[in-house]
Amino acid sequence: MIEVSSHHERLPSSTKPTVFVVDDDAAVLGSLRFLLETDGFAVRTFRSGTALLNAGGAPGADCYVIDYKMPDINGIELAGRLRKSDGDTPVILITGYPDENISTRAAAAGVKDVVLKPLLDENLLKRIRRAIQDRRGK
Predict the structure, then answer these.
(1) Concatenated DSSP letters for 93-133?
(2) N or C: at which end does the chain have fewer Cβ atoms within 10 angstroms?
(3) Helix, strand or coil for residue 66?
């Protein structure tokens, strides 16, 4: 089981969880890959929801981090589709466009958490660790 730890503690390599990140912005993908790999996660990135779905839902994810606003399919719709094929893998939605209804719509699609893009770093890492820990605790 993974313990929620400070940013400076890396995850043991024997339990290196895999996070799948979906965002249409290459700069965000690169930044998140760097952040997550530095913290000890294995990372796979996808430039669109369609790319992830075309990869067969990409088995092997311990957690999905999905951008809300993408041109092909929005993050909430993608989370709903993933929930049908991969029901217990946690989904964290990231967005730079929050509105008062996004959390409600995200929860209805099975999203574990919503994180605002300007505040990703440690906030996102803590939520990913907690989501994976909760899933493995089942």
Answers:
(1) EEESS--TTHHHHHHHTT--EEEEGGG-HHHHHHHHHHHHH
(2) C
(3) strand
What are the beta bridge partners of residue 20? 44, 64
Q: What's the pLDDT at 119?
A: 66
Tokens representing residue 98 in the block: 């929050």
- pTM surpassing 0.85? no
Strand order across the 63-67 sheet: 42-46, 18-22, 63-67, 91-95, 113-116
pLDDT of 36 over the 50 cut: yes
From the CA atom positions of the chain, what is the Rg in Å? 14
Output the DSSP codes for 5-23: --TTSPPPGGG--EEEEE-
Enter the tokens of residue 23.
Answer: 């965002």
